[in-house]
Structures are given as structure tokens and as C-alpha cells.
Amino acid sequence: MSRTEPLPGPLEPRGRTIGAEERAAVLRVLDSASLCGSFGTEARALEAEMGELYGRTAVSCSSGTAALHLAVAAVDPDPGDEIVTTPISDFGTVAPILAQNAVPVFADVDPATGNLDPASVAAVITARTRAIMVVHLFGAPAPVAELRGLADRHGLALVEDCAQAWLGTVPSGEPVGRYGDVACFSLQQYKHITSGDGGLAITADPALARRMRLFMDKGWDRSIGRKHLMYGLNYRMTELAAAVARAQLGKVAGVVARRRERAARLLDALADLPGLGLPSPDGHAWWMFPFTVPDEPGNRAFAAALQAEGVPASAGYLERPLYANPALAEAPVYGSSRYPIDRDYPAGLCPNAERLIDRTLVTLPWNEAYTEADVDDIAAAVRKAHADVR
Ligand SMILES: *Cc1c(COP(=O)(O)O)cnc(C)c1O
Asked: 3-state class of 61 per DSSP?
């Protein structure tokens, strides 16, 4: 039984939680005629509300990538210093490392979850390492307690990329985003909640908060005149985006709760299928629903079988690990120079990541608007693919 009606997705009203609150928010800002975050009240109010939610100081900015750039700029590596990160993420995780003239170093991942493996991170730490940048992939909590310990033992900063993990927690219940010196969130169209684009960085450290706030606004402390205290960019969030983000932030708990309910139903429906590696629901924020299949015939055949049933599925999430993209593998970074990249990233660098992308990982888009019947259709399609693809 294949689906004829497409599942709700993030590019249409039924797959987003944009409603009366967001409409009122936009009109409120337009009526104020104050659209820039430096002069209105919405961006500061969003920061206060995000700060309250996580018990941290929050800095708003124009995207998740910008938030990660604030984090790297605040951590302040020297040119040529190394930042250890994961090969399975959005390119926005790694671009800010290059932008601050630091070298991205890739550690391998857990073959079940795709999240950074602390032992692999430990193995690539050198005297030049300044920070670890960890991603909670698909919303599953990465081993942040272990990585926090590792960072502390080596005197490194820890940055959490929570773009896919709004309200995720570690299995014990502590929120992800509270282990890193800085944690970064995205409000891009495809995330749990959205303002079209937008980002938030949170920290408990006043010095890091200050550097991030300065970097977000041209290094400018507006309380002391027209004086630029450090190099910075214009990464300000607009009042329009901030007002929408405030309305969306009020809905994020419901979004995550509904995603969790539906994911539990799918986990239940698939639990008896041999060879399928299902994610642990502990603390999962379910940006996507990932699972693994046997290497043979592999994820491409499996995803194709799901697509034939009308269930959108991706084989491997990425086409290649981050380090195999031309931008890192071969292209110049600045002018004709590859600086800060000082090494090759050969095939086989992170075998677990490569196997997930090439052979074993399947991801299903996940959405708070999925009904129980939608989940039952998805389960039926996965069971059919499981029976047919061999
Ligand atoms: C989306 C995403 C980013 C980048 O966020 P943008 O808002 O698109 O710049 C970074 N990291 C991860 C893990 C993401 O999913």
C-alpha cells in the first residue's frame, strides 16, 4: 500500500507551525517601523526568552552558521590552530572554522548514531587543538559529558551545534546545549522552528557572551560611542525575524513533544525487524528519523524502495563526508591559497562516517504534523522495503 498524498513537509503551511502568532508578530514590527535589531525590542526580547529557556545568556544573529561563527570568534583560535569536528553535518558547522583561519580536523563517528566518537576525538588532539565542535546529529544527543571531560583535560573549548537538537537532552535528562562553552541553534526553514533564517548562541560565560555580541555587530559596543573594539561582522537578526522567532520559540516544546510521540510509534512498529539499526529515543529531538540498514544491498536501494512507496527518504543524509567536498578537499579558500587548510583529507579518513553515508544510513524527514496514520504508512513502507530489498 503506497501513499498517494505527500507527507507534510517544511516548505508548506501544513508542515510548519506558522500561524496567527507569527502574523501578529510581523505586523507589530511593521507598525513600529523599527526593523533593525539594534533599535527595536524584539531581538533583545528573543535573547531574554531563549536565555530563560536554557538558563544561559543568549545572543541572536542571522543564521545558524552565523551563530557558529560567533562561537568560533569568541573562542578566538590563533591562525592555524585546529578545531576538531565531525564529517557528518551541515557545511555551516565547518565554514566558520575556515572563516576564522583555523584548521578543521575531522574525527570519526559512532557507526550507529553518526555522532562524534570521543575516542576518535581524543586520538586527533594535538598541541594546536583549540576547540571541539560537536553536532547533535538528527537531534540525537552526542556524548557531550565525555567530550566535556576530554575538553577540560586538554584545556579546550567545547562548542555544541544544536541546530538539529532543539530541546534535546542527554539520556539522564540534562538539556544538550548546557555542556559546551557555547551552544548554537538555527532557525532556518527546515529546523524544528523557523524565522526563515536566524540563529542563537548561548553561553554561561560573560566574557564569551560579550565577544559574541561584539562580533555580531562589527565589534561595536554601542554604549560607548562609535568605537570598534574587535574585528566583527554584521550578523544582526532583524526585528521581523526576531518577532517571528519569539512566536516560534513559544511553540518549540509542543513541536518536540509531538515529534517524540510519533517517533515512539514508529520505533514500536519497527522494533521486530532484524538488521535494522533503530535510534535510541532517550533525549532525541527527532529533527529527522535516522536508522541503519545492512551494507548489502545498502542504503541507496533501501531509500529508493521507500521513495517508490511515497515515503521521502535519503540515503546517507549527505552525498559525501564534509571533508570530501571540493571546498575542503581541493578548492582554494582565499585567493589562490588553501590557507588555513594545511593537509589532505584522504578517502578513508573517517571510515565509520564514510560507511554510514555510502552504505548504511537512511534518514526520514520528520514532522510534528505527521498523524498516527502517516506514521503507520511510513512503518508499512519500511516493512515492505525490509522484505523486498535483499
Ligand atoms: C542547519 C544547520 C547548520 C546551519 O544553520 P543555518 O541556519 O542554515 O546557517 C549548522 N549545523 C547543523 C547541524 C545544521 O543542521
From this structure: strand
Q: Per DSSP, what are the bridge partners of residue 288?
A: 365
The secondary structure element, H or E, covering residue 339 is: none
Q: Is residue 5 assigned to a domain?
A: no
Asked if residue 4 is part of any domain, the answer here is no
Is 85 a pocket residue for ligand 1 (Cβ < 6 Å)?
no
Domain contains 170: yes
Full-prediction pTM beyond 0.85? yes
In the chain, the amino acid numbered 283 is: G
Q: Is the distance from CB of 93 to CB of 86 less than 8 angstroms?
A: yes
Asked if residue 62 has its Cβ within 6 Å of ligand 1, the reply is no
203-247 confidence digits (pLDDT tens): 999 999 999 999 999 999 999 999 999 999 999 999 999 999 999
In 3D, which of 191, 133, 134, 131 has the Cα closest to residue 167?
191
Q: What is the pLDDT of residues 287-313, one digit of tens each?
A: 999 999 999 999 999 999 999 999 999
Q: Are residue 221 and residue 147 in the same domain, yes or no? A: yes
With a 6 A CB cut-off, is 352 part of the ligand 1 pocket?
A: no
- Verify that 147 and 260 share a domain, yes or no: no
Ligand 1 pocket test: which of 113, 186, 197, 235 has the largest number of ligand atoms within 8 Å of its C-beta?
186
Going by CA atoms, what residue is nearest to atom 5 of ligand 1?
64
Domain residues for 315? 252-388
If one residue of 160, 188, 248, 363 were mutated to test the ligand 1 pocket, choosing by the most ligand atoms within 8 A of its CB, it would be 188
Q: Indicate whether 121 and 233 sit together in one domain.
A: yes
As a whole number, the mean pLDDT across the chain is 97
Q: Per the domain annotation, does 365 fall within a domain?
A: yes
